[in-house]
Design goal:
Residues 7-128 form the Alpha glucuronidase N-terminal domain. GO terms for molecular function: hydrolase activity. It is an enzyme of class 3 (hydrolase). By secondary structure, this protein is of the alpha/beta class. It has three domains: 17-145, Chitobiase/beta-hexosaminidase domain 2-like (Chitobiase, domain 2), CATH 3.30.379.10; 151-474, Glycosidases (TIM Barrel), CATH 3.20.20.80; 511-556 and 593-669, Alpha-d-glucuronidase, C-terminal Domain (Alpha-Beta Complex). The protein contains 21 helices and 15 strands. The strands form three sheets. An eight-stranded parallel barrel has the order 6-7-8-9-10-11-12-13. Strand 1 (29-32), helix 2 (37-54) and strand 2 (68-73) form a beta-alpha-beta unit. The longest helix is centred in the C-terminal third of the chain and has 33 residues, at 637-669. The protein binds alpha-D-glucopyranuronic acid. The site of alpha-D-glucopyranuronic acid has 9 residues, from loops.
Length: 681
Amino acid sequence: ADDGYKLWQRYEQVQDQAKLQVYRQAINELIVQGNSPTLTVAHQELQTALSGLLGQTVPSSQQVTKQNVLVAGTPASSALVKNLGLTDRLKAVGNEGYLLQTSTKNGKNYTVIAANTDIGVLYGSYHFLRLLQTQQDISNLSIASAPKIKHRVLNHWDNLDRTVERGYSGFSLWDWHRLPGYIDQRYIDYARANASVGINGTVLTNVNANALVLTEDYLKKVAALADAFRPYGIKVYLTARFSAPIEIGGLKTADPLDPQVQAWWKKKSDEIYSFVPDFGGFLVKANSEGQPGPQNYGRNHADGANMLADAVADKGGIVMWRAFVYSEDEPDDRAKQAYNEFKPLDGTFRDNVLVQVKNGAIDFQPREPFHPLFGAMPKTPLMMEFQLTQEYLGQGTTLAYLSPMYKETLEADTYAKGKGSTVAKVVDGSLDNHKLTGIAGVANIGNDRNWTGHQFAQSNWYTFGRLAWDHALSSEQVADEWIKMTFTNDNKFVAPVKDMMMNSHEAIVNYMTPLGLHHIMGWSHHYGPGPWIKDKHRADWTSVYYHKADEKGIGFDRTKSGSNAVAQYFPPVAKQFGNVKKVPEKYLLWFHHVPWDHKVNSGRTLWNELAYRYSGGVDDVRQMQKTWDNQEGMIDQERFQHVKQLLTVQEQEAKWWRDACLLYFQTFSKRPIPQDLEKPA
Ligand code: GCU
């Protein structure tokens, strides 16, 4: 049965016969000299993949015996690579980069995968395979590639009982019960998938942390996972529960300035390194949503982060300290809190601390303007946190290709150092000259047979890795690759499905939260509409707090006359967002309370525009259904039916959103639904 388990690594025989012949001719022999664990897996992957893609075995050899040779290695591991004259070009690709190069020497033709390190060779091997999987020309290769961001990390919100916070694809992959003795093949396949897109770190545990994972029994299990992942270049990280010194250490306090507490963390870190010599470090959520933190002791985030940073510094570890703070006291505008708490701390963090910031200031909404902290802390490396799991995006039933959403944030201009100071440049360190850089994706992976619940959710795992490596890639290109590798190269399938993916995020925004609306989902679980939610014991846990609909209009005034959150942006951005005439319409109700009869770009009134957007979103889902139905027979029935059924569910959900929101907001607007629109049921 085809259940999608193989992700984008199916390695089926190349469909185009002409291309197949060319590839067969170009690759008569495979030479991978050297036998480190990483080179061994690169070799195995090339062998397996080539025999699948070419439909014939490519013999491996240690020396050149054939005319057309595929060579993979480093100058250190391979005399062949060393003598191919790539030394200068290799200098430019650094520790993880690689070259794919066609060359001839002594009458032989070489396709070379060369790198400075073994992991570079593995990454290059996956790139080369991708070229075959997507049927590219390989006759004249001259490709150099290196990642733009150093730490490319998945964040698993996985609990030790294997439930997954905001997980919609089964239970946690980590089978703690059978670890460390049993290494599930899934761990290897997970590592292969990650390495194929350049993901080089994984945080195994939930940010709402359990200190138990730091005890010896669990550390043995963590070590077994780290051993399994190591050949694939993946470092393991853990979440550190701030109160661990009390909970598992028997101390009376977790005050970061207490010498006993500092000593406890140092000893604990040394113990972790004794099990996992290349342990990556800690991810911490502190003083947010009830998690303990330094503020419990009158200290600040830097005090907390620095204590942990000192504990891992001598081993090369890092601390990823989250800026998603959400305090006990009700704020005047929740969107302002992270900036207010963190900006004053700029310059006070240790060198091995990254502050990890969500893409937007509220919480992974279907659409958010970029977080005002980006650009505002030039002395601190800021790490991007995207969510791959679809907490607020329809969860397990919705087809959402999220590259356009990620790119929208990365390409946003902060104006921190004038025009062109994009969020991407903050994150990749180029704006403020940071060497330590990082990007995190909250994983959507579980033990479902297809890993991600929805077949198309695999594309977000893929995309995260590809954009983490190179944020300049276009969403179209990433989708194109993913579709070809996951389904087929047949353009009758690729073109319409790519269009469908490209429009999928906007469709959801329209039927859930058009024009800058946000956080009007169902209470607590965040599934389905709930704009009517009020009377919770704090205002920012209600929906009415976010949309503020009344008889005059709708939207959150974040300008001077309201919370003035716009002032957290640099002046050119603040001016634009703060002006109801200039703000991009997609953020209109994020920043402004707007009268129902206000004219928007289309010339319609705001009320009518809302109705058109909600309806348009439903229509878009129906269009997606048509597109998909047309593909029947182009791919296997299993995956076809899986997507078809889920699109039927999604269409019902879209209608549910449209009807619930329009009927609810109509109680304030007191205006009719435009004649030509389908009436809410
Ligand atoms: C959201 C989510 C929580 C999660 C939190 C976080 O609020 O609903 O489940 O713990 O984000 O990012 O820490």
